[in-house]
Amino acid sequence: MSRGLSIVTGVFAFGVYACAQITIAGRVLDENGAGVAQAAVSFRGAGGEVQAAICDPWGEFTFTLAGPGRYLADVERDGYFPLKNFPVDVTGATTEVHLAVSHVREVFQSVNVAASGAAVDVDNTAAEKKLTGLEILDVPYTPTRDLRAALPLIPGVIEDNSSQLHFDGGAERQTLFLLDGFDFSDPLTGKLDTRVSVEAVRTIDWMSGRYSPEFGKGSAGALDVRTDMGDDPWRYSATNFLPGLDTRGGLHLGTWAPRFNLSGPLRPRRAWFSEHLDLNYTQPVVPDLPRGQNRTQIFQGGNLLRAQVNLTPANIVFADFLVNYEFAPHTGLDVLDPLSTTSDQRSRTYFASLKDQIYLTHRMLLEVGVAQDRNFLRVIPQGDGFYNISPFGKSGNYDVNSIQKSERSQFLANLFLPSFERAGHHQWKTGVDLDRLNYWQDLRRSGIAIFDGSGNLVRQTSFAGSGIASQPNLEVSWYALDDWKVRADLALEYGVRQDWDELLRRAALSPRVSAAWAPGGSKSTKISAGYAIVRDATPLQLFVQARDQFAIDQFFDPPMATLIERFVIPNPHLKFPDFQNWTIGWEQRLPAKINLQVTGIRKRGRNGLAYTAGDVPGVFNLTNARRDSYDAVEVEVEQRFGDQYEWMASYTRSRAHSNEVIDLSVDEPLMVANNTGPLNWDAPNRFVSWAYLPTKWKNWAVAYSVEARTGFPFSLVDGEGQITGAVNSQRFPMFFSLNLHPEWRFKAFGRRWALRGGLNNLTDHQNPTVAQTIPGLPPRLYGSEGRHFVFRIRWLGKAN
Question: What's the whole-model pTM score?
Answer without folding.
Answer: 0.92
